Amino acid sequence: MGEKITAKVETITPEIAKTMLGENVNNRRISRDNVNLFAREIRNGEWRFNGEAIKFGKDGRLLDGQHRLLAVIAADKPLTTLVIRGLEDETQQTMDSGKTRTLGDVLTLRGEKKSTQLASLARAVYLADQLGMEAAAQNDLKPTRGEIISFIDQTPQLADVLAASRAFRSQSGDMLTSSMFASLWWTFAHIDTDAANRFFTSLASGANLQADDPILILRNTLMAQPHKAGRSTRDNRVRIAALTIKAWNKWRKGKPLRQLKFSAGESFPTPR
Q1: Both 30 and 163 in a single domain?
Q2: Which domain of life does the UniProt lineage start with (predicted)?
Q3: In a domain, 264, yes or no
């Protein structure tokens, strides 16, 4: 098998990480999103020793671990991890071939029911709660697993979000994605929970609405969107969120509405 394979728990400082990365040849393309996510986990103290290793070939070449090493440098904090040295270079082809454990998988292990749906909605609500509805619609940011789990633990109201989402989807189908609905419902419910429930119940059913009712105008606008439009482009997600907020604001004021638009370059509306 060649040189002896060694495995040792080591503390990787930013300086050591830079040295290790100097042996990085033919590794995977770097994902800055993953680096930033790992770095936040390290800064927040969420990183846990779990036996995953940084791996080197028998000639000292880095085979696996570049994102973790880059994260150590970005976080400017050390990381204690397993380091394996002396592997055959060909073993790199078999690394990272397993299925990554998702947040839904983690929640299932914790005994959460409907864990996949909870993971998706919790992330959407977390973004809306922490950064606002526009950021939630853009969906560009990746909270760490620890941030979402902590949010779930501290937010029992997520049960209400799940219930409201199931009710809305059963009546309206794909008018809004579950994540879009969850972030909007959460935002509106913080203003007036009863009003939020009435707004989305009417939006889902379309019953007993006047021709100039903002909810009906919004419903017709959303129904005219391509199938599952809320899952498409970033700009379209922002547009759908903005239109819903505009209709909500008009409806709350009891004002009629003839047309609903959100133009490119227009300021994102504030829900009131």
Answers
A1: no
A2: Bacteria
A3: no
Number of other CB atoms surrounding residue 91 within 10 Å: 14
Contacts of 47-51 spanning 24+ positions with Cβ under 8 A: 47/79, 49/9, 49/80, 49/81, 49/82, 51/82
137 and 192 assigned to the same domain = yes
In this structure, is residue 267 part of a structural domain? no
Distance CA 131, CA 100 (A): 27
How far, in Å, are 225, 243, 249 from residue 207 at the CA level? 20, 20, 20
8 Å CB contact between 93 and 10 = no
The reply to whether 42 and 81 lie within a common domain is yes
pTM assigned to the model: 0.69
pLDDT, one tens digit for every residue, the chain (272 residues): 446 899 999 999 999 999 998 876 555 678 888 888 889 889 988 888 888 899 998 888 888 888 899 999 999 999 999 999 998 877 766 665 445 567 887 788 788 888 889 999 999 999 999 999 999 999 888 888 888 989 999 999 999 999 999 999 999 888 899 999 999 999 999 999 999 999 999 999 999 999 999 999 999 999 887 665 445 688 899 999 999 999 999 999 999 999 999 988 899 999 99
Number of structural domains (the chain) is 2
Written as six digits, the tokens of 31 are 């994902």
The CATH number of residue 34's host domain is: 3.90.1530
Question: Looking at the structure, do residues 76 and 134 belong to the same domain, yes or no?
Answer: no
Asked if the structure places residue 80 within a domain, the reply is: yes
Residue 258 in contact with residue 214, Cβ under 8 Å?
no
Q: Which range marks the domain in which residue 191 is found?
A: 103-253
In a domain, 265, yes or no: no
Neighbours of 181 (CB within 10 A): 24
Do 163 and 47 sit in the same domain of this protein?
A: no
